[in-house]
Task: inverse folding
């Protein structure tokens, strides 16, 4: 099993450009999450999904959109990138709604917006 | 609302000495607490969790954590530090909604000095 994978690993954008980050998991997990990691701020939740076809806003959703058309994939979109979106983005998944389940993280995507 | 605090940005310890990384939490109801480790340029890896039961929880790589309800703390410990333990450590608490979101602390960078 590959676990949680993220594409791409690195990306540089210019202000105003758009892009999509892809997260894929092969563990048949129901729940998926997108976080951003900034120095001194830990991880903050952007959007999450509790199942195929569902999405919901997290703590810092502005400027991002998501889609979960297939259970194994969770896409994060930036429609018009801004320098404030320079960050490391992590995807995670967890099997079910049981609160004892840990989240499994991907390797991250480092995004720079110039 | 739930939150965790990691009061130390940086912890330095000599190789072979015991280490402690501190975490305090705030949550209504029973806490579900997690520790994750992040090595350079990698995603987060699960170390251990407290759900219920024994206050001393054992996890991966020889780490353990002590849950203290009266002090609302969940400190990460290891009896003898290794240089390879040098990494960024995150404490997290699960929310009580159906989404099972995690709220992370700001992280503590552990440096083990040879």
Result:
């Amino acid at each position: 099993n590959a676990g949680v994978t993220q594409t791409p690993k690195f990306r540089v954008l210019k202000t105003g450009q758009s892009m999509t980050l892809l997260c894929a998991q092969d563990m048949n997990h129901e729940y998926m999450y997108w976080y951003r990691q900034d120095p001194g701020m830990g991880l903050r939740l952007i959007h999450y999904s509790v199942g195929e076809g569902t999405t919901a806003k997290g703590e810092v959703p502005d400027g991002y959109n998501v889609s979960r058309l297939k259970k194994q994939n969770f896409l994060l979109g930036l429609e018009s990138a801004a320098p404030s979106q320079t960050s490391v983005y992590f995807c995670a998944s967890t099997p079910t709604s049981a609160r004892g389940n840990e989240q499994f993280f991907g390797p991250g995507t480092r995004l720079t917006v110039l | 609302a739930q939150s965790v605090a990691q009061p130390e940005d940086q912890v330095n310890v000599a190789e072979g000495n015991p280490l402690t990384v501190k975490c305090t939490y705030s949550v209504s109801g029973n806490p579900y607490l997690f520790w994750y480790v992040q090595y350079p340029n990698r995603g987060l890896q699960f170390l251990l969790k407290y759900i219920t039961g024994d206050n001393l929880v054992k996890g991966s790589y020889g780490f353990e954590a002590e849950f203290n309800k009266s002090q609302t703390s969940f400190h990460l410990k290891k009896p003898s530090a290794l240089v390879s333990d040098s990494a960024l450590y995150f404490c997290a608490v699960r929310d009580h909604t159906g989404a099972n979101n995690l709220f992370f602390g700001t992280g503590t960078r552990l440096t083990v000095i040879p």
Notes: The mean pLDDT of chain B is 93.
